[in-house]
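Q&A log
Question type: sequence-to-structure
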Amino acid sequence: MKFFWQKNSAPAQNSQQSGESIFTTATLKLQPENVFDPTAVMVIVEGLQVGYIAKSQSSDVTTNIKRQHTTELEVPAHLGWDTENPQPYIGVKLMMDDLI
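Response status: OK
Response body:
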C-alpha cells in the first residue's frame, strides 16, 4: 500500500493547529453481523480498525458497496495528527463522493 507524507502548510493566523498528514487508502468493510446496525461499515487503515461510517450514512454506503458485488472496498484517505501534543488528536478523512 502506497502512502505519501506531507507536512501541513502554515496554519491560518487564527488557527492553533500544527501537524503532519498521510495520504493512503482505507478499506470499507461491510459488517452485517453488527448487532447495533446491520448496515454497519467498518473503516480499516493499514490493517487497523479506526472506526465506522456514521449510522446516518451507512445504509447508502452499504448499498453502493453491494452494487459493486463486493463486501470490501478501498477508498482514498487522508490521515492527520497534531505533532505538538503528547496525546495528539488523530483524524481520518475518507474520499467517498461516489458512495454517498
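Response note: The chain has one domain: 21-94.
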